[in-house]
Write the structure tokens for this entry.
Amino acid sequence: MRELLLCPPDYYGIEYEINPWMSRAHGADAALVQKQWKELHARLSNLDCDVHLISPQPGLPDMVFTANAGLTIGRKFIPSNFRHKERAGEQPFFAKWMEQRGYDVNWLPENLYFEGEGDALFGGDALFCGYKFRSDIQSHRGLADILGCLVISVELVDPRFYHLDTCFCPLPDGSAFWFPSAFDEYGQRAIREQVTGLIDVLPEEAMHFSCNAVVIERDIVLPEGAPRLVATLQDRGYCCYELPMSEFIKAGGACKCLTMFMPQREKC
Amino acid sequence: MVSETIELRGHIIDSLILPKVLDQILTHGANFKIGEIKIGERRADQSFARIEVSAETSEALDELVLRLRQHGAEVIERANVQLASAPADGVFPSDFYVTTNQQTFIRFDGKEIEVRPAMINSAIALDRKKESARAVKFFDVNKGNEIVVGHQGVRVVPVQRSTTHTEIFQFINTVVDADEPKSAIIRELGEELRRAQTAKRKIAIVAGPAIVRTGAADHLVRLIEAGYVDRLFAGNSFVAYDVEHTLFGTSLGMNPDLAFTRGGHENHLRAINTIREAGGIFAAVRKKILTRGVMYACVLHDVDIVLTGAIRDEGPIPGVTTDIIEAQKVMRQKLADVTHVMMLATVQHSLAVASMLAPAAKTVCVDIDPAAVERVVEHQPLQSIGLVTDVEPFLRELADCLSESRVRE
């Protein structure tokens, strides 16, 4: 049974603007926020996942996006070092929570920005890591040192897709779906060389955060608005659950951003 | 030819970081020599490369190394910054480090210290006791102050390209030429200003006298009346032109409302004299001498007016800061919280403002001279738009667009 970490959206809202999706002029609808998050929680719970909840904290509206808490491999937890001061306050809460549950907390040097599972996803035997907008490439070397695995660093070039998990979603069979133009040409080539059976997501579907999906074996929970992608995934034998995520997309997040795997992998 | 040695470590082969770095060196007109390379034997093994990078000038090399650092390149000297004492008040030691407006750290005593504020074209002064570093201008340095020299131990963190909601500021160094359409951009800009106003951001205008001479003052007044201007930065001449236009209907003797009318050049000086006699702009409004125009609208709508002078100025009009050092200080202070700036038809003033802005500020530069627009846009490379056009149609369309959206509301 997969274990997941979620955070109830009690203090969620658009209180600052740190990515192109966020606009304080277009706030989230509080009732709809609760409804959409509860649907995600219920869906993941029904997929036979053990969903843990961390207490939300006032003044930290983006704590709901637990994917950015850090990266968990086996019993090792590597906390994030957030680039924006608006989110830096989340780090101690997540680190303490994981530590209290017996995880071995491995810190990266504090001068290296790293935004957790949002920028670090396993595909095959490689850990794919995004850099530039949020995480520093230097943090990837820190991850490789701690984990001893192959780390493929890819540059993100479209500010709308500022975390790796907004434009790249590995699948358990070693393939992945992705939005290629979110990466520079070297990143695209590196991914193509490492991943077989790639599914390109159309720009209009990528804009619905379709790549921001939670994959639990053959089940995929993703935001609604990507009929072509869903059809392709179904052809490959995956079962897709499309959820409304409008209120979280206003902050630049969706299903995957709201979920952290504990752990993402048992071992590298 | 100058050179620097960089190192790359990690999975630089599978990630294609090594070829990317080498390609970037060549596309920037520099050269490289690989001093040492160790390629990991197993998939999980990390690789290592030491590369000597050489370029024609130290500026070109610095710019290139800055780019390569984004991809993980490290300059091998992880040493502390080098320091030298300021030889006299107002003088930096030779070879002092010149700042950009990007976030900058210096390494001292094994620690990284952030330089505050992020201010372009300054030196960096270190306070050992407080373990703090600040960007300092010439007037701010005293004999004996410890100043960073050379590039060693300095780390610059580039700002991410765009954190805005809209597309309009997403492209770097966008310049719309004279023969390209502008209406869509002006509409987008209008939307951006509306959002900024709603979010209580600070919008500033840098105004050149051509606004009055081309007959665009009334459009600017409409923006002020609608609350889209929090601060107005201008020189003595803008005020003089505006007042002359208000009092005599002319600007430097020309009547913008009548075709081909000349004469009345002395109106300019009479206008300045009237304001001096009244005791300044505010007094002239209070005494009902000034009853319309841009300055009148600013007083009426509580726009913060920041006036600075130049050598050619007549007068000056009371309220104009004529001491340039003092003017820099005032402008810097008044620009600290500004998020949006429209620089309209004034190259020198726009360049001064652009050089003092925070890297995240969004700027629009409008001028009829393409070279002027290019220069200003280059100063704020991350979120700036330049429009090559006469300022009058620009302001007319922007004011129309913003008043239309108000009607829609």
Summary: Residues 1-76 of chain B form a domain with the Alpha-Beta Plaits fold (CATH 3.30.70.2690). The interface with chain A takes residues 9-11, 14-17, 19-20, 43-44, 46, 70-72, 74, 105, 112, 160-166, 170, 195, 198-199 of chain B (CB under 8 Å). DSSP finds 13 helices and 18 strands in chain B.
